[in-house]
Amino acid sequence: DIVMTQSPDSLAVSLGERATINCKSSQSVFHSSSNENNLAWYQQKPGQPPKLLIYWASARESGVPDRFSGSGSGTDFTLTISSLQAEDVAVYYCQQYYSAPRTFGQGTKVEIK
Amino acid sequence: QVQLQESGPGLVKPSQTLTLTCTVSGGSVSSGSYYWSWIRQPAGKGLEWIGRIYTSENTNYNPSLKSRVTMSLDTSKSQFSLTLSSVTAADTAVYYCARFSCSVGSCLPDQDWGQGTLVTVSS
């Protein structure tokens, strides 16, 4: 299985400031046939299912605010919230869908400082 | 807009078999480009991918659960199901059904999710 490791486990950011979450995979998730990194980011608020934010490491899902951006390639990835809003308080997960079983990072809890 | 809804018993006794159903509305489980998956989340913990089904003959299960998991499709009812045998307290979790799409050579992550259903394993 591909192991996904996120850092930090939690972070507190002031409103309007930048939040950065890292995700590292135990092996490359770059898919040569599609020329894409099979890496997604999800946002989960309490009592709700995860919501897909980013796929292909950097493609924003329809309707996701542009303050959310993803970057990285191979084994190292980053989710950035450029200007944290109150509604962004949540747990964020990365997921690799390069190979089965699909695996998730342990989650990063984002709070307001 | 597709909607997915999980249903099943909220309480299961240890050693028994858990069966959950996901009803799909606004779409068909026999749609050629979609795969149907199950994911679970123990309270306060992270997400675990259980497996996915495309057709009755095309399934993929997490090796950690493979010996206890079966997934099936009922196209007439637009439903797919998860069966987990010999449950223990460690199987207590919120269970989500979800779907993702694939095209030639590549797939997407799970884009559409149900709201989840809590299953507690206890005597």
Could you explain the architecture of this structure?
The complex is a heterodimer of chains A (113) and B (123). Chain A has 113 residues and is mainly beta. Chain A is 0% helix and 51% strand. Chain A contains no helices and 13 strands. Chain A has strands at 4-7, 10-13, 19-25, 30-31, 36-37, 39-44, 51-55, 59-60, 68-73, 76-81, 90-96, 103-104, 108-112. The N and C termini of chain A lie far apart (36 Å). With 123 residues, chain B is mostly beta strands. Chain B starts with a strand and ends with a strand. The chains are: A mainly beta (113), B mainly beta (123). The interface between A and B is medium-sized, with 26 and 26 residues.
Topology:
The complex is a heterodimer of chains A (113) and B (123).
Chain A: E1 4-7, E2 10-13, E3 19-25, E4 30-31, E5 36-37, E6 39-44, E7 51-55, E8 59-60, E9 68-73, E10 76-81, E11 90-96, E12 103-104, E13 108-112
Parallel strand pairs in A: 2-13
Antiparallel strand pairs in A: 1-3, 3-10, 4-5, 6-7, 6-11, 7-8, 9-10, 11-12, 11-13
Chain B: E1 3-7, E2 11-12, E3 18-25, E4 34-41, E5 48-55, E6 58-61, E7 69-74, E8 79-84, E9 93-103, E10 106-107, E11 112-113, E12 117-121
Parallel strand pairs in B: 2-12
Antiparallel strand pairs in B: 1-3, 3-8, 4-5, 4-9, 5-6, 7-8, 9-10, 9-11, 9-12
Features:
heterodimer, A: 113 residues, mainly beta, B: 123 residues, four-stranded antiparallel beta sheet, 12 strands
Mean pLDDT of chain B: 95
> Which segments of chain A are poorly predicted (pLDDT under 50) over 5 or more consecutive residues?
none
Question: Rough shape of chain A?
Answer: globular
Q: Output the helix-strand order of chain A.
A: EEEEEEEEEEEEE
How many helices of chain B?
A: 0
Oligomeric state of this protein: heterodimer
Distance between the ends of chain A: 36 Å
Largest interface: A-B, 26 and 26 residues
Mean pLDDT across all amino acids of chain A: 97
User: Tally of extended strands of chain B?
Assistant: 12
Count of individual helical segments of chain A? 0
The main β sheet of chain A shows up as: 7 strands, mixed
Q: Helix share of residues of chain A?
A: under 10%
Whole-angstrom Rg of chain B: 14 Å
